[in-house]
Amino acid sequence: MADQPARKDARRNRALLLETATQVFHDAGADAPLDVIAVRAGVSNATLYRHFPTRRSLLSAVYAQTIDALCAEARTRVEDGDHDDALFDWFGIVVEHMQASRGLRDTLVAAYALVPEEPKAEVDEWHERIRVTAAPLFTRALDRGRIRPSLQWAEVLALVTAVAGAAGPDRTAAGRMLGVVVAGLRAPGSTAPRPVSPHSSPRPCR
């Protein structure tokens, strides 16, 4: 069909814009000029705005991509049922994700706040996806006696994500703080086979 090459080009341009925007936002912050993203991606401003009419729509797409990656990391560990400490390993990825995307998340929340009649359903959905996808890791840790039985999943997740906020961009500090948190979460007598620390940034799902 005649429109198939055009659709293929559109998909390629969108993927290229997302990849470029992710890097630009990481390097220059969420307020980076959008025309810089278009130039680096090798497309026109018109192409950028055709795919992403507003800054918020682009930020949302970039952040959603990182949520996909974080959930994929959790699913991989859920499927690997032999790893007792998969939950603690995933915590390191969560902290790295939160540090890398903090500016994007804060900008999105601020953008939604400017339009109070629009519910933050998208942001809430992302958080719920993470909570539900990784919940089996928490259940496994409980069943295998790796984590204190009195803990609640929502509280544990909130505590771990708070590490990134407290440490800011300092990965070394984040690693130390996460180690302290994990030590407190572990069930008495449960020891870690290796230190828990932030990983490299989550890989976007393809």
UniProtKB/TrEMBL annotation:
Pfam families: TetR_C_43 (PF21597), TetR_N (PF00440). Residues 33-52 bind DNA. Transmembrane segments: none annotated. Keywords: DNA-binding, Transcription, Transcription regulation. SUPFAM superfamilies: Homeodomain-like, Tetracyclin repressor-like, C-terminal domain. InterPro entries: Homeodomain-like_sf, HTH-type_TetR-like_transc_reg, HTH_TetR, Tet_transcr_reg_TetR-rel_C_sf, TetR_SbtR-like_C. GO terms for molecular function: DNA-binding transcription factor activity; transcription cis-regulatory region binding. The keyword Glycoprotein does not apply. Residues 11-70 form the HTH tetR-type domain. The keyword Transcription regulation applies. PANTHER family: HTH-TYPE TRANSCRIPTIONAL REGULATOR BETI, HTH-TYPE TRANSCRIPTIONAL REGULATOR RUTR. This is Transcriptional regulator, TetR family.
